[in-house]
C-alpha cells in the first residue's frame, strides 16, 4: 500500500481523526457520500485515511472497534475531520490540544464534526471564527468560548475552519464538499443514489433559492413528458429570463442543462438497474426515439447506453 501522504491519485486527501466513543452514524454519513462520489466518477476523487492520536485502536459509542491506518502526528492532507462525538470532554487534554495545533499547520482545512468543534476550540483553532456544534452543547459552547461567534446552523464554513452539528448534518456537509469540489451534477447523482433531497440541506438549490428548488422538483416530476423552459417558468409564476438567471446563479448551469442531466441520470439508472430495452428507456426519459436519447447520453456520460450496460464504460 503506497504511503498516503505521497498519494499520486490526485484526490482530495482527508484524514479522519477518531476518538473513543465516536459516532458510527456520523462517520458513515461523512465518508459514504465521498465513497459514492468515487464510485460514480470511476476515479479516486477523495482519499481518506483513519487516524487516532497515537495510532491505537478506537472504539465507537456502540462498540465498533477501528484500527487506524496511522497516527495524527506526521499525517498531513487537504482536510482533517475531527470526530470525538460522545465523551468529548475526556479528550480535551494536552495530547489533543498539541496534536490539533500541529495538525493545523499540516492540513489545509480542519473540520469538526458533532462535538469536534469543542476540541478545536480548546486547541485555540476557532478564536474569532464563526462556528457551530451539536445543538445539545450549543449554549455551553458559547458560554465557555466567548471569543467564538457561535451560530445555530447545521454546518458553518469560515475559511479553513469548518464545524458541523450531528450525524445528519455530516451528510449535508459531505454533499456540499462534493458539489463544491466536483460540481453540482455529481452532487445530484450522489443525492439520487442515497434517495436524498440533498438540495434542501447542502447549500445548493432549495436552501439558497426556493424558486430553483421548485423548478428542480417540476423537472423531476416531468421526466417522461419534459416541459419547455417557458412552461416551467409559467408554472412557477416567473418570466423565463428570471428562471434562467436564478438557475444559472444557483447551479452554475442553464435550466436546459440541468433538466437534461436529470433525464440522463434516470436513463443511466434504468440502463444499469433494469433489463428494459433502450427504446423503452428513451420513452421513459422523454425522448421520441432511442437514437436521440443515445446521442444525449453519449454527450453527458461519454459512453453509450449499450456500452455501459455491457460494462464497457463508466459515467461521471
Automatic annotation (TrEMBL):
<dbReference type="GO" id="GO:0003700">
    <property type="term" value="F:DNA-binding transcription factor activity"/>
</dbReference>
<dbReference type="GO" id="GO:0043565">
    <property type="term" value="F:sequence-specific DNA binding"/>
</dbReference>
<protein>
    <submittedName>
        <fullName>AraC family transcriptional regulator</fullName>
    </submittedName>
</protein>
<dbReference type="InterPro" id="IPR029062">
    <property type="entry name" value="Class_I_gatase-like"/>
</dbReference>
<dbReference type="InterPro" id="IPR009057">
    <property type="entry name" value="Homeodomain-like_sf"/>
</dbReference>
<keyword id="KW-0804">Transcription</keyword>
<feature type="domain" description="HTH araC/xylS-type">
    <location>
        <begin position="213"/>
        <end position="311"/>
    </location>
</feature>
<keyword id="KW-0805">Transcription regulation</keyword>
<dbReference type="InterPro" id="IPR018060">
    <property type="entry name" value="HTH_AraC"/>
</dbReference>
<dbReference type="InterPro" id="IPR052158">
    <property type="entry name" value="INH-QAR"/>
</dbReference>
<dbReference type="Pfam" id="PF12833">
    <property type="entry name" value="HTH_18"/>
</dbReference>
